[in-house]
Amino acid sequence: PDVISGDMESAMAVELNPWVEYEFRVVATNKIGTGDPSAPSRVIRTNEAVPKTPPANVSGRSGRRHELVIAWEPVSEEFQSGEGFGYIVAFRPNGTRGWKEKMVTSSDASKFIYRDESVPPLTPFEVKVGVYNNKGDGPFSPIVVICSAE
After folding, report:
1. SS3 for 115?
2. pLDDT-derived band at 88, boundaries 50, 70, 90
3. What is the pTM of this model?
4. Which residues form the Fibronectin type-III domain (predicted)?
5. Quick one: 63 exposed, middle or buried, by C-beta within 10 A (0-12, 13-18, 19+)?
6. What confidence tens digit (pLDDT) does each residue in 128-148 have?
7. pLDDT tens for residues 111-127?
């Protein structure tokens, strides 16, 4: 943190993550040395915001015939930015227009299984996974191509 002059009575913490609980302490320093930290402040939760971090490592997993299994690394709680966090799984057969989107409402989910009897084995799909919470929709992961199960 920045050094604050001894005659200041307050300071502003910036670039904090939304919807995270913080405690603050003050430590005084002079020519003689550094004192003990103050007692922690009361816990303060920052305001909610639209999430900014998409899930990482979107990939395909093995599944049963006529299934497309989409997996990702869940977004950690500190980057969910608010209540009602979940995922938007978007997919389409490679080379087509228009995304199918499915909502996954569990914040700790790490996969989605799409079943369709009309999908031939090893059909390539373009896939991306986005995030949302009560404040709105956040970004999607980069598009990856995965194949339906054999």
Report:
1. strand
2. very high
3. 0.86
4. 1-49, 54-150
5. middle
6. 999 999 999 999 999 999 999
7. 999 999 998 999 999 99
Average pLDDT over residues 87-96: 96
What is the sign of the dihedral through the CA atoms of 64, 70, 76 and 82? negative
Q: Phi and psi dihedrals of 118, rounded to 5?
A: -85, -5
- The four Cα atoms 44, 73, 53, 108 give a dihedral, to 10 degrees, of -40
Whole-angstrom Cα distance, residue 108 to residue 3? 39
Radius of gyration, alpha carbons of the chain: 23
CA distances from residue 15 to 8, 12, 46, 129 in whole angstroms, order as listed: 21, 10, 11, 26
